[in-house]
């Protein structure tokens, strides 16, 4: 069970409503405290159920630094087991993915079922009569729960439930997932893996800061889209009154941008497949809602501390060191749509986030440069004032602002301070 130590660092000195201190991205002591107070305490996104569709299918994952196996057993349940042999602690599964009904530890040959039970220890006679298999099993992650296929886990056996942690962000998750006429996403199209030399919080902020930086670092793809289809992803209107309340911070640390970003910018909307898809949505939600969905796209989300959902993508953040982060971009497909629609979705994802993508390359580069700036240690404050004067605060603690306001960042740091102060 994770325990919360009394904080050795006073976060009240580092985080204010309108500014934060550069040390938050640079100090290895703070990075270590994040494991105790965030990664091993909060709910953390682990994977999607569709990554392990068949009995025995598994994926190896990490919660913070801890290695886990996400595996579907013969009863259809998805288990999360610590990838650590109880004998002497070796990992029992080295592969990133596969299918196994038995995990056999390579070190001394003990074997385990995909529910974690010890099936056999080798040369077991040497343990005497008191050896009890039940004492040696792959430890289950203390709490596991899922929301519409998204699997979350908590290393703490106490604390808020997943439903409490997610709160109102489920409204936006529903809006994202409902683009499938069957109400299910599928994550089975590989993953784009990236790594940058910067703190994990750089990418959390970059992902949902409001649409401010897009005008500068993403200029190329914006103008490309304008040329090709006349205006999708055009952010010129995101600073005016129409964009009020479009950037929304929710209790639990979650950030939302409810902005119009077309879900499939390459789609031929007069094509037969597209029409078929539209009718499927129409049958489920009615014409007005289906038209709105097609025009508007899905909201963008950051679900604290490591899940980002943008356009058709699930993005997972994984801290490595204080100044190094892994980012995995999973394209998602929609269940119940013509193949061509999913192909379009995939091509759209690749164009922005694939190996030659125009968006992720910009963001990864800017996160690295941002980290370099953190080494300058004179006057170390970073400012979060955009839109502060017009931020709307609701009773439940959520806040909202215009499309380019920084209320999401202020909310993120408010939540971070609470978590790191052990509240
Ligand atoms: S460490 Fe696994 S069998 Fe010894
Ligand atoms: Fe960006």
List its salient traits.
423 residues; alpha+beta; Rieske Iron-sulfur Protein; Naphthalene 1,2-dioxygenase Alpha Subunit, Chain A, domain 1; 2 domains; four-stranded antiparallel β-sheet; 11 helices; 23 strands; 27% helix; globular; binds FE2/S2 (inorganic) cluster; binds fe (ii) ion
Textual characterization of the structure:
- This protein is α+β, with helices and mostly antiparallel strands and 423 residues long.
- It has two domains: 103 residues, 3-layer Sandwich (Rieske Iron-sulfur Protein), CATH 2.102.10.10; 253 residues, Naphthalene 1,2-dioxygenase Alpha Subunit, Chain A, domain 1.
- 27% of the residues lie in helices and 23% in strands.
- The chain contains eleven helices and 23 strands.
- Helix 7 crosses helix 8.
- Bound molecules: FE2/S2 (inorganic) cluster and fe (ii) ion (FE2).
- Fe (ii) ion binds next to loops.
Computed over alpha carbons, the radius of gyration is 23 Å
The proportion of residues in beta strands is 15-25%
Distance between the termini: 17 Å
Query: How would you state the average pLDDT, rounded?
Result: 92
Category by helix and strand content? alpha+beta
What is the CATH T-level topology of the largest domain? Naphthalene 1,2-dioxygenase Alpha Subunit, Chain A, domain 1
How many β-strand stretches? 23
CATH 4th-level superfamily of the largest domain: Naphthalene 1,2-dioxygenase Alpha Subunit, Chain A, domain 1
| Name of the CATH class of the largest domain | Alpha Beta
In spatial order, strands of the major sheet run: 13-19-18-17-16-15-14-23-22
- Biggest sheet overview: 9 strands, antiparallel
Bound molecules: FE2/S2 (inorganic) cluster, fe (ii) ion
What are the segments in which pLDDT stays under 50 over at least 5 consecutive residues?
A: none
Number of domains: 2
* Second-tier CATH architecture of the largest domain: Alpha-Beta Complex
> How many distinct helices?
11
């Amino acid at each position: 069970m994770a325990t919360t130590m009394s904080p050795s660092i006073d976060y009240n000195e580092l985080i204010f409503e309108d500014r934060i201190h550069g040390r938050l991205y640079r100090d290895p002591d703070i990075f270590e405290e994040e494991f105790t107070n965030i990664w091993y305490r909060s709910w953390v996104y682990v994977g999607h159920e569709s990554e392990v569709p068949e009995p025995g299918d598994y994926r190896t994952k990490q919660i913070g630094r801890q290695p886990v196996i996400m595996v579907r057993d013969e009863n259809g349940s998805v288990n999360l087991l610590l990838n650590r042999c109880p004998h002497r602690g070796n990992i029992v599964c080295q592969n990133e993915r596969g299918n196994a009904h038995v995990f056999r530890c390579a070190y001394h040959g003990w074997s385990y079922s995909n529910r974690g039970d010890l099936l056999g220890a080798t040369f077991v006679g040497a343990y005497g009569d008191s050896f009890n298999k039940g004492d040696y099993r792959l430890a289950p992650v203390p709490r596991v729960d899922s929301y519409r296929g998204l699997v979350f886990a908590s290393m703490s056996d106490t604390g808020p439930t997943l439903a409490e942690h997610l709160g109102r962000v489920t409204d936006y998750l529903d809006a994202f997932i409902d683009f499938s006429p069957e109400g299910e996403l599928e994550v089975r199209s590989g993953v784009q893996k990236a790594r940058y030399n910067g703190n994990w919080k750089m990418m959390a902020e970059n992902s949902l800061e409001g649409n401010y930086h897009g005008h500068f670092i993403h200029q190329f793809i914006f103008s490309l889209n304008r040329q090709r289809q006349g205006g999708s992803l055009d952010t010129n209107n995101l600073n005016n009154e129409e964009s009020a309340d479009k950037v929304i911070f929710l209790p639990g640390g979650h950030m939302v941008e409810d902005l119009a970003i077309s879900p499939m910018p390459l789609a031929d909307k007069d094509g037969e497949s597209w029409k078929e898809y539209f009718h499927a949505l129409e049958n489920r939600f009615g014409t007005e809602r289906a038209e709105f969905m097609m025009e508007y796209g899905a909201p963008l989300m950051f679900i604290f501390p490591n899940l980002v959902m943008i356009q058709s993508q699930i993005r997972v953040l994984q801290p490595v060191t204080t100044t190094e982060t892994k980012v995995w971009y999973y394209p998602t497909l929609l269940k119940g749509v013509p193949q061509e629609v999913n192909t379009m979705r995939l091509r759209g994802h690749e164009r922005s986030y694939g190996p030659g993508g125009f968006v992720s390359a910009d963001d990864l580069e800017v996160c690295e440069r941002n980290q370099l700036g953190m080494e300058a240690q004179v006057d170390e404050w970073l400012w979060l004032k955009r839109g502060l004067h017009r931020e709307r605060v609701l009773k439940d603690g959520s806040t909202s602002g215009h499309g380019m306001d920084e209320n999401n960042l202020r909310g993120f740091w408010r939540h971070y301070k609470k978590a790191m102060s052990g509240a």
